[in-house]
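Thread title: Can someone regenerate the structure for this chain?

I was given the following input by a collaborator and told the matching structure tokens would be attached. They weren't. Posting the sequence so someone can regenerate them.
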Amino acid sequence: MADTYDRDKPFQFCKLDIKDGFWRMVVSYEDAWNFCYILPAADGTMKDIDDAEIVVPHALQMGWCESPPFFCASSETARDVIEQLVINPIEMPARKFESRLRSDQPIIESKPENTKNVIEDFVDDFIGEITEAHLTHLSRCMLHGIHSVFPPIKATQHGGGDAISEQKIDKGEGRWDYVKEILGWNFDGKNFTIQLPSDKCDKIVERLKKVKKFKRKIPRKVVEKIEGSLQHATFGIPRGSGLFSLVQMAMQGGKQ
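Best answer:
Regenerated them for you:
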């Protein structure tokens, strides 16, 4: 928004979320054995080790350090597909959910070459940002690109629901709008601003007030929570990260 500031060309935003993303990633037979776990007994007891049932899941599991980059390699690939479809338009049929992404705002569809758009993804979130109003084209590209890597039910024949979270679409996250919460920030495409949601500001103030109760020492966990919240807030403050030198030095000590 900063690089293309033009009050006559406001931005609209759309966010699509992958449902149960890790569980949609199939791992090889050899790698699946790294995820083994013992299934608890139905009655809560296990009389003999031979009675144990071992589960060998063939889907990516949470908690493993290699799982996020493995998943993100796929989501980045989907983002690249979307970008190529935007740059090199091809004839595509209407996609599922497409009508539900339409903006509530009155719009006039413009030509793709007259727009400025950005497509990004963060883990399982796909974020669209566009000026002007060629929303049908970009919506179709996003839906087609995601389904090219995370196939819909029609292709997989499984019962886990569509790869794109319909629940999030029902909440309005997928609908194009001038104001949208993205990665913990409220983006305003008309005023070209970002702002922390009020509930996040309230939590920061509440945590800072709790610090006053400690007279000499502050538990490390309390400092870590405050530091994490303030670090996120400094994204909207130029050079704000430089204010954390003393906090980082303090956390290099012991538990308190």
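The radius of gyration is 23 Å.
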